[in-house]
Specification:
The complex is a heterotetramer. Chain A contains 14 helices and 16 strands. By secondary structure, chain A is α/β, with parallel strands linked by helices. In chain A, strand 13 and strand 14 form a beta hairpin. The longest helix of chain A has 20 residues. In chain A, 55% of the residues are buried. By secondary structure, chain B is an alpha/beta fold. Chain B contains 11 helices and 10 strands. In chain B, the strands form 2 sheets. Chain B has a 6-stranded mixed β-sheet, with helices on both faces. Chain B has a 4-stranded antiparallel β-sheet with strand order 2-1-4-5, covered by helices on one side. In chain B, helix 5 runs antiparallel to helix 6. Chain B starts with a strand and ends with a helix. Chain D has one domain: ABC transporter involved in vitamin B12 uptake, BtuC, CATH 1.10.3470. Chain D has a two-stranded antiparallel sheet with strand order 1-2. The chains are: A alpha/beta, B alpha/beta, C mainly alpha, D mainly alpha. At the A-D interface, helix 2, strand 8, helix 8, helix 9 and helix 10 of A face helix 1, helix 9 and helix 10 of D.
Chain lengths: 386, 258, 310, 286
């Protein structure tokens, strides 16, 4: 037991004191585990951005050149792990800029502690629960780095409007995973559909479900025109395949996930609506920045580019680091958090995405709405949320 | 009568291990039950101590029915058995083995007052007179020299004696010994006999099962002979031993005729 | 004499001010409570219960819900939580032990019950808020000779609070184990048949062990909820149970303090050395396997054997 | 509604056989080595990913893709047996915990190799047979046929061949079997490897129906163990039947009851059975 205590103290003293001209950036995301889908891409994008900035010899603020040290540990979506790591970031590492978390359970756990450091650091995360805290007293450290579904500028609204305009759906069947994300979708979209006079029918499934035919058959018996399935590709592939094979549904409406499952069954599908932060397959051809990003990713990770999940890079990583650096340059400081925040809120960054924050600190970025018809011809509509 | 066994029958699927056995044991006597292997001796014991439930028949203990009761209830009522091949708490020391066996004694003597043991300021080694009894029994069973050794490291004879010691610690009114002498050397058997005498001195009724005929003849007041689940004779050891069916059972037909 | 072992813990916060280190200790203390209590039923009575995380989580929910609904203090809420856990344990334990479920079957049935509990909490949205979990905003307060009633907030406060709770647990367990109850547990672990013929009521003492273990786990759960300020159905997940089991095995199931060591190693180590999630998972598995195959009595047990050998 | 019921019953049977093949492995391992190998689910995962790799990346035809999957799963099984399980024979709790350790190692390795991004293998056979509202995907029927065949062969092998009888004898009474000259070590390793091969085969078929992720093993082993207990551990027919019962309960259950509780139906069943008949439906008290 005592030996262990010494271990701790050693580790404590051993942790390097902030060296000159090194800017420490922290990240708390689930890189592995059941809920890693967002954190995984975020952590990859951030690591890539850091690498690029340092390779370029760092960045200059007030004629001082800084390189970035990234401290990103894996929370596995476990609030316990997260809060320990978070405290370490703020105290022993003295980090002033923390990316993540994307998981609401992690966020609500660290929030009471984080607000003690209000004004001393910035937390740039995508968690839905962050929305509720934005603009409340002593939460100036918060920035939400993800489009909000609801509200006039929310993509949820825009998606539903388009759905009504283009298909005139009357009844929609919702099939969500019985977890954080699923519940959030229910809370946001049920009222949205109600406003537009669309009837809804809901089924939740246990995480880990692979065979959906029972629940799909049940939903199909309710004669909905269109299926609005769960948000993670881990399930979409199975749901879409089983829905079409079993002749339960041939129209789909998604606000999370990707086009992949649709393309795979393109000859069985009548209509496939998807919200994606970016349709990389196409943007790669038209937009040089995107092409570069894809190339860099392949070079850096030496593996193929995950088109399915890459859109999640918008969550809180690649662009946001460059945006932060730019804000620092403009503000002429790397540690006056208040100044840097003001810069972030006032500027618009043109990276892979066109990013702007609203006055409360919630992000608005442009995104794509894809629509795939039978046979797989795809129409892309870029939407500028600003 | 202390124990009455009435038309006791036990079947395992097809075969009948014990059929219509009836006998009684009075306070203070030493009854020897013998018979060749497979004659149902151990089954009988397991039925009495509640390890098995009888297929038919009744067992009266102090004239209340106890058949089918669970073992610990019957043990608490005062019927305790030893095992043919000793069952011990192998990881524990001899002393602790016997100490665990003091459970019933403590319960009878203190009941809920045992809760006082939970008080931090009461040290663990209380109930001194009980612990003294442990020492006495260990001495009696010639185990005091090895009391700190773990039960796993005992000789077969010592294991048997430890079994007896634990049974004695329960202070039963009726002690059933399942082949206590088997596998014991001469001097160990003598020790055993002393122990039995001492038990009787403590007004414990004994029921000894064995196929060592001569041993039973020495210790028992009364003998019961079993064969293939049937009781074939009972009475004074000498008579039972010379009962023709017993001889037949042991030595085969022709001897019986002779 | 043993009490001296605790002294370093009391002076420790004076040595390190770091909130981060203290946090590791606080989590270790709270989880150690769960591990030590689990060892009652697992290590000392020899029954592999998979209901432990459930007791932990159910109590966490009961306490926090009582506090938020009836606006009572932590201590008042702790009582119903413990009572509820005890009742549940009595019911489930009676079922399992009445039907004489041994080893594996006991594990499976208790596992089934804890999964059911998790699913109920998961889907009972209007009370438990389902998977979104609940925030626990209140903090327990204690009476101190200096300063009267004080709310426990911040690392140092929680450090001593959880340490006290741990010491209480250890004291209770050691008192129980040195008494006749402990002897009965050992008897059941080592030889049920013999124990019965010696007049030990196996059913009663198994039930006692199971209930006591869960009741203590309930305390750990409530503390955990109020310290993290957040509860979610994952508290009842199988993995939670497995974590507790591995703490016990790592530390050693034959001693009371073993699980504490286990809790410290498994909570602290990941943060001492920075590893990717995958590497950490592999390391975890490796440690678990090696402990079982190479030193089955766990760290503390092995050390003890060495000392005896030396 | 009737059609819905019929369709889902059939579907449940098919899904159930997939549980059944794992349950078969669980039961065999338990009968011969006295431990429950919770890592079987991971061997299933290995089999599934290998199949995906052979079929999608290496471009082998599906039948040829299955073989290496089974082989590699069995190979890993052999390694695991020689390195780990050999030391936990008849030690239930240690076996349990060693397999849990193994799970977290294999799963982490899978994460490194294939990441959390789901892999969806190209369709071997798409489309479905339809009869009114009842529709069964063709591939599912193929999978069912294959699983049934393998289960039957296993049963035949165990009741006909000497090895099989030896195994049965051993599971009934180890000492006697050893006296009769059964080579314990070989028998035990053989059974462990065979059960991992079964799991690998199950995985190979799984890959043709569902998308893959490293965590898939965890769910299936739980179902497999449930099924094994349901049918009575130690009984071959029981384990298969248990799997099917479980599958049907879930499928039909989630029509009439909220799908979110799907996993609970099986559990309730298991508890009930265990209390009503501790040996399981087809098991015999030993």
């Amino acid at each position: 037991m005592r030996r262990f205590i010494w271990l701790v103290i050693l580790a404590l003293t051993a942790s390097p004191a902030a060296a000159q001209n090194v800017l420490k950036i922290g990240q708390i995301e689930a890189q592995t585990g059941a809920n890693a889908i967002y954190g995984y891409m975020s952590s990859q994008g951030l690591a890539l951005a850091v690498d690029q900035i340092n390779k370029a010899g760092g960045f200059k603020v007030a004629d001082k050149t800084y390189t970035i040290e990234l401290i990103a540990s894996d929370t596995r979506g476990d609030p316990k792990e997260a809060s320990i790591q978070f405290k370490r970031l703020l105290e022993t590492e003295g980090v002033k800029f923390v990316y993540g978390p994307f998981l609401s359970n992690v966020f609500v756990t660290i929030e009471p502690y984080a607000k003690q450091f209000n004004g001393k650091f910035l937390l740039m995360g995508g968690a839905t629960r962050i929305h509720d805290f934005l603009g409340t007293p002593d939460h100036d450290f918060l920035l939400r780095t993800w489009n909000w579904d609801a509200g006039p500028k929310g993509f949820g609204n825009l998606m539903v409007d388009r759905l009504v305009a283009e298909t005139g759906a009357k009844k929609i069947a919702m099939l969500f995973q019985n977890d954080q994300g699923g519940k959030v979708l229910v809370d946001i979209y049920t009222p949205l559909f109600k406003q537009k006079g669309i009837e809804t029918q809901l089924e939740l499934f246990e995480p880990g479900t692979k065979d959906f035919s029972a629940v799909l058959a049940k939903l199909a018996a309710g004669n909905a025109d269109i299926l609005f399935p769960s948000y993670s590709d881990a399930y979409l592939y199975d749901i879409v395949r089983q829905a079409t094979e079993g002749n339960y549904f041939r129209k789909f409406f998604l606000v999370r996930g990707s086009l992949g499952p649709g393309l795979k069954n393109k000859d069985e599908i009548d209509d496939y609506f998807v919200y994606v932060p970016k349709y990389f397959e196409q943007a790669e051809k038209t937009d040089s920045k995107v092409a570069k990003f894809v190339a860099d990713y392949k070079a850096f990770y030496k593996r193929d580019f995950p088109y399915d999940q890459a859109p999640l890079c918008s969550s809180s990583c690649y662009d946001h680091l460059f945006m932060l650096v730019e804000a620092m340059k403009k503000a002429g400081t790397v540690d006056d958090v208040a100044k840097i925040r003001k810069q972030l809120l006032s500027m618009t960054y043109e990276g892979l995405w066109k990013i702007r924050f609203d006055e409360k600190g919630e992000e608005l970025f442009n995104f794509d709405i894809l629509r795939m018809k039978r046979g797989g011809q795809i129409s892309v509509t870029g939407v500028d949320a600003q | 009568m202390l124990l009455e066994v009435i038309e006791l029958t036990k079947r395992f699927g097809g075969l009948t291990a014990l059929s219509d056995v009836s006998f009684a044991i009075g306070t203070g006597e030493i009854v020897g039950i013998f018979g060749p292997n497979g004659s149902g001796k151990t089954t009988l014991l397991n039925l009495i101590t509640g390890i098995l439930a009888p297929s038919a028949g009744r067992i009266l203990w102090k004239s209340t029915e106890i058949q089918g009761q669970s073992p610990h209830v019957i043990a608490a009522a005062g019927v305790v058995k030893t095992f043919q091949n000793p069952q011990l708490f192998l990881e524990l020391s001899i002393y602790d083995n016997v100490a665990i066996a003091s459970h019933l004694r403590l319960r009878r003597q203190y009941g809920l007052r045992r809760l006082a043991e939970l008080l931090p300021w009461r040290d663990a080694a209380r109930h001194s007179e009980v612990m003294q009894r442990v020492d006495r029994i260990l001495a009696l069973c010639r185990l005091d020299s090895v009391r700190e050794r773990t039960a796993a490291g005992l000789s077969y004879g010592q294991e048997k004696m430890l079994g007896v010691a634990m049974a004695m610690m329960c202070e039963p009114d009726l002690l059933l010994l399942d082949e206590p002498a088997s596998g014991l050397g001469e001097d160990e058997i003598r020790t055993l006999e002393e122990v039995l005498r001492d038990l009787r001195g403590a007004a414990t009724t004994l029921c000894v099962i064995d196929h060592k005929v001569d041993f039973l003849a020495r210790v028992a007041d009364r003998a019961i002979a079993l064969q293939q689940g049937l009781m074939i004779a009972q009475g004074a050891p000498a008579e039972v031993l010379h009962h023709p069916r017993v001889i037949e059972a042991y030595l085969g037909r022709h001897h019986a005729r002779a | 004499m043993k009490l001296l072992l605790w002294v370093p813990f009391f002076i420790f916060p004076a040595l390190v001010q770091s909130n981060f280190i203290l946090t590791i200790f606080i989590f270790s203390f709270i989880l150690a409570i769960a591990a030590v209590s689990f060892n009652l039923i697992f290590g000392f009575t020899g029954q592999l219960s998979m209901f432990h995380a459930a007791a932990f989580g159910i109590a966490a929910y009961t306490t926090s819900l009582t506090v938020s609904i009836f606006q009572v203090s932590f201590w008042v809420a702790l009582l119903p939580a413990i009572c509820f856990t005890i009742v549940l344990s009595l019911v489930i334990g009676s079922i399992c032990f009445k039907f004489k479920l041994r080893a594996f079957y006991f594990a499976v049935v208790t596992l089934a019950f804890s999964e059911l509990a998790r699913l109920v909490i998961l889907n009972w949205n209007n009370v438990t808020n389902g998977t979104l979990g609940l925030m626990v905003l209140d903090k327990p307060s204690v009476w101190l000779p200096v300063g009267g009633m004080v709310k426990i907030d911040g690392a140092v406060g929680w450090y001593f609070f959880s340490l006290a709770a741990l010491i209480f647990t250890v004291a209770l367990c050691s008192l129980v184990l040195r008494s006749w109850i402990g002897r009965c547990f050992a008897a059941i672990r080592l030889n049920e048949d013999l124990a019965q013929t010696l007049g030990i009521d196996i059913f009663r003492y198994k039930l006692l062990s199971f209930t006591l273990a869960n009741a203590l786990a309930a305390i750990a759960g409530s503390l955990y909820a109020f310290y993290t300020g957040y509860i979610e159905p994952n508290y009842l997940s199988i993995n939670q149970s497995l974590d507790i089991i591995s703490m016990v095995l790592l530390g050693g199931r034959s001693s009371i303090i073993g699980p504490i060591a286990g809790a410290f190693v498994l909570t602290g180590l990941p943060h001492m050395i920075d590893l990717s999630g995958e590497t950490r998972a592999m390391l975890y598995g490796l440690v678990l396997i090696l402990t079982i195959l190479i030193m089955p009595q766990g760290v503390i047990g092995t050390l003890a054997t060495w000392r005896r050998a030396a | 509604m009737l059609q819905l019921l019929v369709g889902q019953t059939l579907n449940g049977v098919i899904v159930g056989t997939l549980y059944g093949i794992i349950a078969l492995g669980v039961t065999l391992t338990f009968g011969i080595t006295g431990i429950v190998n919770f890592a079987l689910g991971e061997f299933m995962m290995i089999g599934a990913y290998v199949t995906w790799y052979m079929f999608d990346i290496a471009g082998l035809p599906y039948p040829l893709a299955i073989l290496p999957a089974v082989a590699i799963a069995a190979g890993c099984g052999f390694a695991a047996d020689q390195l780990l399980f050999r030391f936990t024979r008849n030690n239930l709790i240690n076996g349990l915990l060693v397999s849990i350790g193994l799970i977290s190692i294999i799963e982490a390795a899978a994460l490194v190799l294939w990441t959390t991004t789901p892999k969806d293998m190209g369709y071997v056979l798409s489309g479905a047979f339809r009869l009114g509202a009842v529709s069964l995907p063709k591939m599912k029927i193929v999978v069912f046929a294959l699983l049934a065949a393998v289960m039957f062969l296993t049963y035949a092998a165990l009741s006909r061949t000497w090895m099989g009888r030896a195994a049965y004898a051993f599971s009934q009474n180890p000492e006697a079997a050893m006296l009769m000259g059964v080579r314990t070590e070989i028998l035990q390793s053989g059974v462990v490897v065979y059960s991992t091969a079964l799991a690998g085969f199950g995985g190979a078929l799984y890959a043709s129906l569902y998308s893959l992720e490293p965590a898939m093993g965890g769910l299936y082993i739980l179902k497999g163990v449930e099924a094994a207990i349901l049918g009575g551990i130690g009984s071959l027919i029981g384990s298969v039947a248990g799997g099917i019962i479980l599958g049907v309960t879930e499928a039909v259950g989630s029509i009439y009851l909220p799908g979110a509780f799907r996993d609970a139906y099986g559990l309730v069943f298991v508890v009930a059975i265990l209390l009503y008949q501790p040996a399981g439906l087809f098991g015999t008290e030993r």
